[in-house]
């Protein structure tokens, strides 16, 4: 039992309590005994032990409960005592707070009184100070009135602070002397002004010595003193005048060489690089502004104003002088050099301004709070170029230069046109091709005038026909003139692109579309007239051609040249002009309409020229066919052999057609090529149909005719046109009518293309057979065949092979 009491106590339940372990502890001995005595399990010992344990646990519970009750009573008593003490403490703290508030109110009252007393004392002290200063000023003033400045001079020489005070006093005395207008103080006014001048001079000398010694501390001291004395303008001017940048500026007056950069014979379409001396000079400006700002910021109280004056001085004096000297030398060199130098200088100066803007915004604004050079840089840049760009001065120079180049390029043609006009006049021929004139304002007089043009070797043709070759001066090199040449157009377009690029650089964006429109219309005034006059000369030269030789196909060459030039103008418009006109839709629309109208006029004249070429080719065909001998297709049998060639007219025409085809392939393309070849083929076909009806043809002549027709068919066959292929196949089949025996004529008429032709149209060819008079019995049968054809609706007219196609020139879009 004592063992149970030892186990069941308050300590057993402290900490972690395990019921199973507790039960094993109180029943451990009974388990051991049961293992030793090997009998049947006896629960009674366990029951007695557990009952005793429960009794002990109940006793322990009652004991613990009594202890808890005692502790609750003690806690309640302690809590009541604590609550009472807290109330007492709270009351005490409240009393303290009220006491402190009362004390603070009293202190504030005392403080306000003290402030009032302090203000009164400060006012009194200020009045006293002013009185003392006024007394001193009066005394100093009276001293100056007596010509005495020793006391103020002693103060100035005492130390730096004394010098500053002396400066302030001198400034005040100067103000008093200016405001007080009493005759008795005239001497004082004079002495004060003299003293102030000497004082300022001394300060400036001291500042200058510090500047030369690079002593920023003393520079700042004297700069501030002078700033408080008279605003610091004299100090600012001294600093700028003594700056080595303005002293060592010999590069401004240097001589410039332009040959390597601006060669008149080599037009570069872009803006050239600026003069290397100008680049070097501007780089020095960038460097000096950065260096000087560091000095100015550390020395001057009013550093932004000082920098503004410094930069203004750079542009107004140095940069302006440099640009004036550069442009003056460029103007003496040549007009193109002047404009190129103007544009490149403008661009270089613009880059300099942008760099200084960046420095202002990134460095200066960070140090002083805001940019300070914005207005002065923009105004200085504008002022530099106003003398050169104001009003229409610049654009008139561009127009004058372009027209000068225009005259230089076309001068050989002008000389040629004058000689040509004289030669034609002697023959009583009036030409419609005249030279364009330039008026005083620099614009081209259009409407009834044109620019000289023509074709290669034209002068040779004229001189040969008119017998006056000696009148063409060999020194003019007129025999080598090439009209409507793309090289000449490039000589005008290249400087025009150059002018457009300069205009883009020099003209304000708001005025750019109008200026670009003016320059482009100036080009359009020149080139279309140049092309139209080339076409006119070609038209006028057709009647002058010798019919004994093959037709000159210069018109086809001209079509290709003019087409290439129109394409070049269109490309130039798209690549260099359009982007500059987009700011002004109205201007863009006007330029497009103007351009398209001029090009349409040129294209219309080209179409007329090509048809004129076709007409003169047809005339030449007639001339050659007229040389056909009367009995050429009625030879004796012994005159014909297997190796006999086609007739001379056929050889001449087919050789020409082959050469013409090569030229046409090189000069024309697309629908224009097809229509030209078709028209020439139709013309030759019609002429041959009429031509062979005029001759009597025997069987041997039929063989010769077949060779001719085969040659014509082969020559036209290279055109690769189905319409012409059928027509010349018809001619070849007509030729077969003269070869076959009489009994085979019907068979020939019922085969091939002839089977589709009305027999009354074939009849004129049948009667050309030399044996037709002996074949009268065939005539009735043939006409019966014709009736059957007409009845069956199978007969066609030869006229169905005529073509109504027309030339369609190119169209240029906007």
Automatic annotation (TrEMBL):
Protein name: Exocyst complex component 5
UniProt family annotation: Belongs to the SEC10 family.
PANTHER family documented for this protein: EXOCYST COMPLEX COMPONENT 5 (PTHR12100:SF0), SEC10 (PTHR12100)
A GO CC annotation given for this chain: exocyst
Coiled-coil residue windows: 47-81
Annotated ranges, domain Exocyst complex component Sec10 N-terminal: 43-157
Start and end residues of each Exocyst complex component Sec10-like alpha-helical bundle domain: 167-776
Pfam families with a match to the protein in the record: Sec10_HB, Sec10_N
Keyword Iron: no
Biological process terms in GO annotation: exocytosis; Golgi to plasma membrane transport
Annotated region (Disordered), positions in chain: 793-814
Keyword line: Coiled coil, Exocytosis, Transport
Gene name, Swiss-Prot/TrEMBL: SEC10
């Amino acid at each position: 039992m004592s063992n149970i009491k030892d186990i069941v106590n308050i300590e057993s339940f402290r900490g972690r309590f395990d019921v199973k372990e507790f039960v094993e502890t109180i029943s451990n001995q009974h388990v051991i005994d049961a293992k030793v005595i090997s009998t049947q399990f006896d629960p009674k010992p366990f029951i007695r032990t557990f009952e005793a344990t429960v009794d002990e646990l109940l006793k322990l519970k009652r004991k613990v409960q009594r202890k808890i009750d005692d502790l609750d009573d003690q806690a309640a008593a302690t809590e009541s005592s604590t609550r009472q003490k807290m109330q007492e403490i709270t009351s005490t703290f409240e009393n303290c707070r009220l006491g402190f508030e009362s004390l603070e109110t009293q202190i504030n009252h005392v403080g306000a009184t003290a402030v009032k007393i302090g203000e009164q004392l400060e006012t009194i002290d200020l009045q006293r100070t002013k009185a003392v200063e006024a007394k001193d000023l009066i005394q100093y003033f009276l001293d100056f009135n007596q010509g005495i400045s020793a006391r103020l001079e002693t103060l100035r020489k005492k130390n730096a602070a004394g010098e500053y005070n002396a400066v302030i006093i001198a400034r005040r005395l100067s103000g008093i002397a200016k405001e007080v207008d009493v005759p008795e103080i005239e001497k004082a006014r004079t002495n004060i002004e003299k003293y102030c001048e000497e004082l300022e001079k001394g300060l400036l000398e001291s500042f200058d010595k510090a500047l030369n010694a690079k002593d920023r501390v003393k520079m700042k001291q004297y700069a501030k003193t002078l700033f408080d004395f008279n605003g610091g303008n004299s100090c600012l001017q001294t600093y700028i005048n003594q700056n080595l940048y303005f002293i060592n500026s010999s590069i401004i007056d240097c001589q410039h060489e332009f040959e390597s950069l601006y060669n008149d014979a080599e037009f570069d379409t872009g803006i050239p690089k600026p003069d290397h001396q100008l680049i070097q000079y501007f780089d020095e400006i960038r460097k000096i502004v950065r260096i000087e700002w560091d000095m100015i910021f550390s020395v001057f109280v009013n550093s932004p104003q000082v920098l503004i004056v410094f930069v203004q001085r750079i542009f107004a004096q140095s940069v302006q002088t440099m640009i004036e000297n550069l442009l003056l030398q460029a103007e003496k060199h040549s007009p193109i050099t002047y404009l190129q130098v103007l544009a490149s200088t403008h661009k270089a100066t613009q880059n300099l301004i942008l760099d200084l803007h960046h420095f202002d915004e990134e460095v200066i604004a960070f140090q002083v709070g805001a940019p300070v050079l914005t207005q002065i840089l923009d105004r200085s840049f504008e002022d530099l170029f106003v003398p050169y760009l104001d009003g229409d001065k610049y654009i008139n120079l561009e127009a004058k230069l372009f027209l000068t180049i225009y005259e230089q390029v076309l001068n050989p043609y002008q000389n040629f046109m004058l000689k040509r006009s004289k030669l034609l006049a002697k023959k009583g021929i009036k030409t419609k091709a005249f030279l364009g004139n330039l008026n005083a304002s620099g614009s081209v007089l259009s409407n009834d005038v044109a620019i000289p043009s023509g074709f290669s070797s034209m002068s040779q043709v004229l001189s040969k026909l008119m017998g006056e070759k000696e009148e063409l001066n060999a020194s003019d090199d007129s025999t080598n003139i090439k009209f409507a040449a793309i090289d000449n157009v490039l000589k005008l377009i290249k400087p025009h692109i150059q002018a457009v690029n300069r205009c883009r650089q020099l003209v304000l964006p708001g005025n750019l579309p109008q200026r670009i429109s003016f320059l482009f219309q100036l080009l359009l005034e020149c080139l279309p007239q140049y092309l139209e006059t080339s076409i006119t000369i070609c038209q006028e030269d057709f009647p002058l051609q010798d019919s004994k030789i093959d037709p000159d196909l210069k018109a086809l060459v001209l079509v290709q040249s003019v087409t290439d030039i129109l394409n070049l103008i269109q490309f130039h418009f798209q690549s260099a002009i359009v982007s500059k006109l987009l700011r002004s839709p109205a201007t863009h629309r006007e330029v497009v309409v103007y351009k398209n109208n001029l090009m349409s006029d040129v294209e219309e004249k080209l179409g007329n020229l090509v048809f004129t070429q076709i007409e003169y080719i047809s005339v030449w065909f007639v001339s050659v066919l007229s040389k056909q001998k009367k009995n050429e297709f009625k030879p004796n049998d012994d005159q014909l052999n297997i190796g006999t060639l086609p007739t001379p007219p056929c050889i001449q025409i087919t050789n020409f057609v082959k050469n013409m085809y090569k030229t046409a392939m090189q000069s024309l393309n697309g629908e224009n090529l097809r229509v030209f070849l078709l028209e020439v083929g139709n013309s030759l076909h019609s002429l041959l149909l009429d031509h062979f009806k005029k001759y009597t043809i025997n069987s041997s002549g039929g063989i010769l005719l077949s060779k001719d027709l085969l040659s014509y068919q082969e020559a036209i066959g290279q055109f690769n046109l189905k319409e012409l292929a059928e027509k010349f196949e018809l001619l070849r089949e007509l030729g077969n009518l003269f070869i076959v025996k009489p009994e085979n004529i019907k068979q020939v008429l019922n085969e091939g293309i002839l089977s589709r032709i009305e027999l009354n149209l074939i009849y004129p060819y049948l009667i050309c057979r030399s044996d037709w008079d002996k074949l009268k019995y065939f005539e009735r049968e043939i006409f019966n065949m014709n009736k059957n054809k007409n009845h069956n609706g199978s007969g066609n007219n030869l006229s169905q092979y005529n073509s109504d196609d027309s030339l369609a020139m190119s169209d240029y879009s906007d």
